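Example 3.2
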Amino acid sequence: MHGRWLLNHQGIGDFRLFGIMDSTHPADDALDAMVNDSAINQIYAFSDLLFQRRHRFNRSHIQLDFQNNTLSTQGIEDAPQNDPFAAVMFFQGDVTGTPITFQLTTTLQEQTDIFPVADATLFKVGDWYAVQVTPIKGAAERELQKLVQITAIADNTHIQIGYYNGWELLAGRVINWQKVEPVQFVTIKNLQFIGAGSDLITGSHPVAFEYAVYANVAGIHSTGSFWPVVMRRWNTHYLTQQCSLINPPNTAYGGAGYLTQQIYCLYGHVSDCSVANARHLNDFTASAYCLVENCHATGQSAEKGPFVNHGQYEHDLTYSGNSGLMTFANSGVTWGGSAKRINVRKHVCPWFVARFGVSELTLEDVVVIANENIPQSGMLWVNADGLRMTGCSADRTFIISQASQRAARKNLIQQCQFSLSDDQTAVIQNNVTSSITFSDTVFKGINGHPFASNAPLSFVRCDFYGGEDTTPVSLATSALDLQACQFNNTLFSLRGEEPKQIGIHFSALTQSTFDFSAFTAQPTASLMFTHNRLSASTIIAQPEAGERVIWQQNILLN
């Protein structure tokens, strides 16, 4: 007589209950049985495990604790073509109902959580929606793509959501609301993962989440996984803690060799993670209000870009106390090349680039150190659109260019130090149109490095050291203001045909030359040179321009 046993498990599952005592036999059936039993909310492993299938679940309120045992995937089934969600454990919410669309009749301002809809009665407080706006152009350039919760019905034609939008949306744009039943309160932790395969078909990775809320990961340490160790899309409110990736089999294929990739994500916190010889430690795409802290990249990871955002209208991201190369909004025009309010503090890296449309970038104590094994290392390149830098340094190359003009705040660089190589790269690129103010900043090896833009420049209490290069610093600015600066063995020359207003006040020049002869003959040009001290220095200005050159209380020590 055949029968079936029914286990009274009291909500706790254990692989040993299914006869899985080690990794000699696959544990796939046991995993399916426990996760798909809605009465089980905790699953534990007490031995190493072998998985040979790729599992998809849509349940909530479950914790899987592998207790630091090893999960291996030798012989795992092939994955579908180019599917980064074909993880060993993929938790996915359900898309339900018919999409609701609304075309904006007026501009939707930035930083609002009240959204217009045709009929607010179609929505219910507590429900979740994948909301997105139609593309600006192409297929991917959208300012809004998030998984949000309805928090209130404001009136018959307005709803409130749990998210302040980061970008203005113009009248005529169409917003799409797709109801979702997300998986919620899923935790996967304490796992040593060994990947199998070396390509997008045979490669394996441990975890993926889509349409997930409060889906947390902790203590996953992976060796050799192909796709991101933790793959997320349409996630809101989550933690990724104390995870690592070592030696993925591929770092050249897009999406391969990552620790975590986060697409359309909101309110995430990634902390205490590390990678070695990987591609990206942390990748944000169309994500917002996330924090990355105390994460570090070593080995070949340093030149692959451990910390990136795609430039698909990310906003309000913060990085604190990390190390490794950073590059923002650098994935190409398909995604828009735009980001806003990115904050980086106490970061050490060989290379930092945010030269595309990153508005209101804030850098604090960012240290860029050249590494002879990494091409272009020692470079710090930023966008002059509401730029704020404090206490930063670069020991080879410093470049400011401008790819956007959105920010209301001014560009301010203070208490920084830049040691420039002898390649004569322009510090200020000729596409900069916004004014820039430097204060309490040191430039070493400045000779030969042009300030090629005619945008206004101000230097307050800055020190300039010329080094051995005898090529002058070419200044194209239309307005130059120097206050209480120190010049040592520096050579400056003014160029350009635009009218110029130059003021040099309370500064000290030692063995330096300022050549103003190229522009002082212009009728609208003016030079004010007051309360300065010159020691073995030269000021060159055409005699016929004397009435436009004001000398006042200068001390000549030649």
